[in-house]
Amino acid sequence: MKILVLNAGSSSQKSCLYDLEDVLPDTPPEPIWEASIDWTHHAGFAEIKVKSRQEKVIQTEVAVTSRSEIIAHMLDTLWSGETPVLKSASEVDMIGHRVVHGGEEYRQSVIINAAVKEAIARLAIFAPTHNPANLEGIVATEKVFKNIPQVAVFDTAFHAQLSPDAYTYAIPAKYTAQGIRRYGFHGISHQYCRDRAAQILNREVTDLRLITCHLGNGCSLTAIRNGQSIDTTMGFTPLEGLVMGSRSGSIDAGILIHLLRQPEMDVGKLDRLLNRESGLLGISGVSADLRAIVQAIAEGNQQAQLALDVYVHSLRSHIGAMVASLGGLDAIVFTAGVGENAPLVRAAACEGFEFLGLKLDLNKNAQQAIDCDIAAPDSAVRVLVIHTQEDWQIAQECWNISVRSS
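^ thats the sequence. predicted structure below, dont judge the formating
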């Protein structure tokens, strides 16, 4: 079974193709084709990179016309060019799309039809940067693959079981009725890490109390009990929760009122301030990239040091909140760019939780290994580093839908 996965963002597009046998493997297989589009390479052009099973990387620049035409150009490399992997589009059995926001309606992955596309468009009011890009990817793919089944895998779906006390904001109920509530994000990544953690620990997902820490440019934590998300840090939008690369995370709402009263401020400027100019970037004045922050600290930059300190304080305090929601902890998982590659952050995050019996093996932590346990042998809490594989999680969702419908 050949499953094509498209993961569309506002400024990038990642895609891959899996060729699966009759049994779903326990561990992620290597895709037979991978491709990416960078819409920000330079003005007027998109950069397309393609890697085939021969590991050869082909890089091209294409003049930007429309998103759908650029996606079609990328997909054409599946059966054309120097190393085609298919003879035609008809060889693909199913296509999976990451869709950021499914609202309250979509609590699991679904086959895409006209009603689903309408809902994705309508829910763009909650995710104006991502849902339109997700929908464009779906429409562009439909043009190329015609009647091949497509599946929407929602980033919010993993958090659909949150209880009312966890998702309700303390605002008048009429606004909650309008859909203003905690939705949570990064659900595809948190779900993958839940399952991979159970594999590594050789335990059932329903037997684990987990905190999964997705730490990239965007950051979120999820508390998982009985296999379900019971609490998470991102809320109505991905802006809430942890301090992030360029996002502020949770701040006093009174600050927003104060800023909007300033004569030079408007809603658009405030949106940019909180989402693109805050977080590590805003405090340090250096970068949203943790690697640049660490380098600046080494050079004596005090604002960079403050940025890291605030980031770690936010991470620890939110981990503590997740522990309280769980009523205990069996394992903590670190994933995504920072979670997988920053021993400094992992060590700092674990400090202060010795009262839980958590003991980090500093040598293992420094080795930069992935999909492994870096806790000390006698630690009461396991500490895992897992390479998140959202594309494979999307492919599994497609596989499961195919099995249920057959």
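The CA atoms of residues 271 and 277 lie 9 Å apart.
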